[in-house]
Structures are given as C-alpha cells and as structure tokens.
C-alpha cells in the first residue's frame, strides 16, 4: 500500500467516524426535551436521511475496504428502533371482527384543494358518508346558517352523537376547532387543554359500547409551521428561514407541554382509551418517543408500509397518529389515500376491547 492510498484510507476512516458520531448524536436527540435544548429538534429531523446514508454506505463500502463496513453496520443496528417506526412490517392483517373503528382526519376546515378560500361540499359529504363508528376531526368547521356547510347536522343525520369544540375568540360565522362523532352514546365530554383563540386543543368523549365505557381523545397539537407556500421568492429566504426556525422551535416546545398535559390526563382516566389526532410531530421526535413510553401505537402494531399521512410537498411525513392503552388491541390500521382534498390523508384504526 503506497502513501497516497494510506492517506486516502485514513481520510475515509475519519469521515466515517465523524458520520457515525453524528448518527449517534441524532439518535440521542429524541431523548432531549425541546424545552431543555431546542437544537435537538433539528438533529432529530436528520434521522431518516442518516438511516438512508448509512444503508448506502453499507452497500458500497465493501467494494472499497471490507474492514470499514463496521461503521455503517453498527450505526444501522443502533438505529433499528427508528427503522421499525418508519416502516411497519405487519402486512395486511386479516381480522374477523372489531369492536370499534375510528376515522381520524384533519379536514382543513372543509376547504378545497390548495386553497382556504372556497368550501368543499364534496369533503363534507365524504366525511358524513364514512361508515366508521367514531370520527375524530381536526381543523373542523361547521356553519349552522348554511345547510350545505352545516357539517355537524349533516353527520348527525347519519346517526351520530357529537361533541364539537369551537375555538373561542375566533371572529367567524364558521365554528372552527375539533369534533368527535360517535354512533355509540356519548356519556361525558371534556377538555384536556384549550387556548383562547387557538384551534389547537385536546378534547375527549366517553362512549358506551355494550357493557364497556371507552374514552376517545381527539387532539390537534401546535403546528410545525411548515407553510412552504409563503416562500415564493429567493430574496425572502433569509428572513423567512429565520422565522421558520423560530416557529419550529416554538412549536416543538408547545407540543411538548401539550403532551405532558395529555399524559397527565390519561393517568387519571378510569376507562380504556384511544388517542387520535394531528400531532404535528414525526416519529423521530422527543415528543413521539415520550408518547411511546406511555402508549401503544396503532401503526406500529397493526399498520402496513410507511403510513405517510401528509398530503403535500413533504409527502414523506407521518404526523397523524393513533395511540391507545394496554386494555385495547389494534387489529388494523390504514391510511386512506382515496380522498385528497385536504392536506392530510384520513387514517383509520380498528380495535378490539380486551375482556377481563
């Protein structure tokens, strides 16, 4: 081996070492609260890219030097938990029965595709015709003055009981917020949290299924701030990127606080429960891993494929989730890509209630 090849070998060796260290630091970021060290939020966003790069290095480095294969191999082995939450290997599960089916859907205020200026009666009709026994809707909107826009009445006519939350302080004829609809009787309702003037909130409804009472949580956590349509011109990027970073930081911190309130509320819940909603957090975040410590996830237990739920430029995001506690079993989980009007895809979970 000549001097030039030795230098190249050690250069690659150090590059792989640095990349492996960066991989480990990124993995560790999911255990750092945004309120303690907010830059960890951005390190976690790099995890999918890190997994892909390590896989590419693992496939190509043996052609150069087999001894260096340990670097990407160890990085991928340590990153296995992130691979398992990225892709569900459960396949299409066959299930003979379920006790409860839940639709969770951010309906974008029932507006048309690519705009918030026009209502979509097609989307209202689709949601009302959906046969799920429970519907958890985020960015919900209804207007009792216009029959075609009265989503609450339209869905209720299909045999659903309802609990609708309208954000206080909104100056609008259209009530905007969250809604839970149930074909089963709703026994009680309440709030996990709400903020004046904000559509982001957490609500719950207790429903009666036979002899069992189940609590359904519908949550819409603080936005990620990814309004990419605002960045139209290159000269805006510097100022807009600073604003975007600030929004991402603030959003992650707020979501962390909201999740703490949710966990506290579930700790005092006397019933089995299911949590659905728009969490505005990817599976590679501190907030998601905090939820995983307390609840099971329907996609991981009963899903198939990647489960991407964002219907926009960043199509590879899974930010709509179903969580549940141990007395409930997820038997199937699906992302419905047939309805593309909203910037989110509908998600459906099918559950069984475990008997004592």
Keywords:
356 residues; alpha+beta; 2 domains; 10 helices; 12 strands
Spell out the blueprint of helices and strands.
Elements lengths: L2 H26 L11 H6 L1 H14 L9 H9 L1 H7 L13 E7 L14 H9 L4 E9 L8 H6 L4 E6 L8 E8 L3 E9 L6 E9 L2 E9 L16 H31 L5 E6 L7 H9 L1 E2 H5 L17 E5 L3 E8 L11 E7 L3
Parallel strand pairs: 1-2, 7-8
Antiparallel strand pairs: 1-12, 2-4, 3-4, 5-6, 6-7, 8-10, 9-10, 11-12
Description of the molecule:
The structure is a single chain. Strand 6 and strand 7 (212-220) form a beta hairpin. The strands form two sheets. This protein has a six-stranded mixed beta sheet. Strands 5-6-7-8-10-9 form a six-stranded mixed beta sheet. Helix content is 34%, strand content 24%. The protein has ten helices and twelve strands. It has two domains: 3-86, no CATH class; 100-353, Deoxyribonuclease I, Chain A. Helix 1 packs parallel to helix 4. With 356 residues, the protein is α+β, with helices and mostly antiparallel strands.
Whole-number count of domains: 2
Cα-atom Rg, whole angstroms?
23 Å
What oligomeric state is this?
Answer: single chain
Write the CATH homologous superfamily of the largest domain: Endonuclease/exonuclease/phosphatase
Supply the CATH class of the largest domain: Alpha Beta
Distance between the amino and carboxyl termini: 70 Å
The CATH topology of the largest domain: Deoxyribonuclease I, Chain A
Helix content: 25-40%
User: How big a fraction of the residues is strand?
Assistant: 15-25%
Mean pLDDT: 90
Total count of helical runs of at least 4 residues: 10
Low-confidence stretches: 228-235
The CATH architecture of the largest domain would be: 4-Layer Sandwich
Q: Specify the biggest β-sheet.
A: 6 strands, mixed
Principal-axes geometry comes out as elongated
In total, the number of strands is 12
């Amino acid at each position: 081996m000549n001097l030039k090849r030795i230098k190249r070998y050690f250069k690659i060796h150090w590059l792989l070492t640095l990349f492996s260290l960066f991989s480990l630091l990124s993995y560790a970021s999911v255990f750092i609260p945004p309120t303690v060290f907010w830059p960890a939020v951005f390190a976690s966003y790099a995890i999918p890219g890190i997994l892909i790069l390590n896989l590419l290095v693992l496939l190509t480095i043996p052609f150069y030097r087999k001894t260096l294969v340990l670097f990407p191999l160890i990085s991928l082995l340590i990153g296995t938990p992130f691979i398992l939450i990225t892709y569900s290997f459960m396949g299409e599960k066959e299930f003979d029965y379920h006790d409860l089916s839940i639709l969770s859907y951010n309906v974008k205020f029932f507006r048309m595709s690519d705009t918030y200026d026009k209502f979509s009666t097609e989307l209202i009709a689709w949601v009302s015709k959906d046969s799920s026994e429970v519907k958890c809707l985020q960015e919900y909107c209804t207007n009792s003055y216009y029959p075609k826009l009265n989503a609450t009445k339209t869905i209720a006519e299909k045999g659903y009981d309802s609990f609708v939350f309208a954000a206080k302080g909104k100056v609008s004829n259209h009530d905007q917020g969250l809604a839970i609809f149930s074909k089963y009787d709703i026994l009680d309702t309440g709030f996990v949290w709400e903020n004046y003037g904000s559509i982001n909130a957490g609500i719950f409804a207790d429903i009666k299924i036979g002899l069992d009472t189940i609590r359904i949580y519908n949550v819409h956590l603080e936005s990620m701030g990814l309004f990419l349509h605002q960045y139209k011109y290159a000269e805006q990027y510097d100022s807009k990127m600073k604003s975007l970073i600030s929004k991402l930081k603030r959003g992650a911190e707020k979501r962390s606080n909201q999740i703490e309130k949710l966990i506290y509320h579930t700790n005092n819940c006397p019933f089995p429960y299911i949590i659905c909603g728009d969490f505005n957090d990817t599976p590679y975040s501190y907030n998601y891993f905090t939820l995983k410590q307390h609840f099971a996830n329907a996609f991981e237990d009963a899903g198939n494929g990647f489960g991407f739920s964002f219907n926009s430029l960043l199509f590879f995001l899974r930010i709509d989730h179903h969580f549940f506690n141990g007395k409930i079993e997820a038997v199937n989980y699906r992302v419905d890509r047939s309805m593309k009007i909203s910037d989110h895809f509908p998600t459906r979970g099918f559950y069984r209630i475990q008997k004592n």
